[in-house]
């Protein structure tokens, strides 16, 4: 079995990325690092080479969709069974790779992804095209999930292009939506990953910048149902207003 692992990194040294350390320890996994970094002090190419990983620089942060498309294009003519998507902040246990090798590449696999405080953030329930967190995978009827640890049969990746209008948010939901519309199966891989995920941004400037990306991506994803985008944007603004104790964020455009 041949497995490719694609890890998009942003302004982090590879030695700081637990998913990099996990993937490089697997003898049958070819790791491809796609670097979206804008910090010139972050130089990852040599560390990737020493680990036997392939390296692709995007020459700045071009967004997640463009990074994935660049990776898929690089891998398109290479033989293989799986492409695994890795975030740079996720802990991947050895059990994940063991269980992946036991699966046939006939369905997209979503592992269970937990935060450090024990909240499950993937898989999730898609209700009326809006993702909702659930407490148990057993309650899911319409599945969606995040990119972290997603295993994609390579035959699907070879014929897919991500919508590059989506910079960061809902890239994963759009992919899974497209796959379901094409009749592809999505299954849960029974293993837990831990992601150092935080929706809390304590710096106002960073929060406003992140909000602009979310707004653009949501308006793109919900291009035929703008009210859903506006609803989710308002919820995010309300969260930030409480978190930052700055109600002015509610009127931010």
TrEMBL record:
The name this protein goes by in its record: Glycosyltransferase 2-like domain-containing protein
Record InterPro entries: Glyco_trans_2-like, Nucleotide-diphossugar_trans
Domain Glycosyltransferase 2-like: 6-99
Superkingdom assignment: Bacteria
């Amino acid at each position: 079995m041949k497995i490719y692992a694609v890890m998009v990194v942003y302004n982090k040294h590879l030695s700081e990325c637990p998913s990099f350390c996990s993937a490089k320890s697997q003898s049958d996994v070819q790791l491809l690092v796609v670097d979206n970094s804008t910090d010139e002090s972050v130089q990852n190419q040599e560390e990737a080479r020493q680990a036997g990983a392939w390296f692709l620089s995007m020459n700045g942060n071009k967004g997640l969709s463009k990074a994935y498309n660049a990776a898929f294009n690089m891998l398109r003519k290479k033989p293989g069974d799986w492409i695994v998507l890795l975030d740079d902040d996720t802990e991947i246990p050895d059990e994940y790779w063991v269980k992946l090798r036991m699966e046939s590449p006939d369905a997209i696999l979503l592992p269970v992804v937990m935060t450090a405080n024990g909240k499950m953030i993937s898989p999730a329930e898609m209700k009326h095209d809006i993702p909702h967190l659930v407490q148990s995978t057993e309650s899911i009827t319409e599945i969606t999930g995040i990119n972290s640890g997603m295993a994609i049969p390579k035959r699907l990746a070879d014929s897919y292009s991500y919508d590059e209008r989506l910079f960061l948010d809902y890239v994963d939901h759009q992919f899974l939506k497209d796959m379901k519309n094409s009749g592809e199966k999505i299954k849960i891989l029974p293993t837990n990953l831990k992601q150092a995920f935080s929706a809390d941004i304590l710096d106002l400037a960073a929060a406003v910048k992140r909000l602009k990306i979310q707004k653009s991506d949501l308006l793109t994803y919900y291009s035929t149902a703008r009210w859903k985008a506006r609803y989710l944007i308002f919820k995010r603004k309300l969260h930030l207003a409480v978190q930052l104790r700055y109600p002015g964020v509610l009127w931010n455009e």
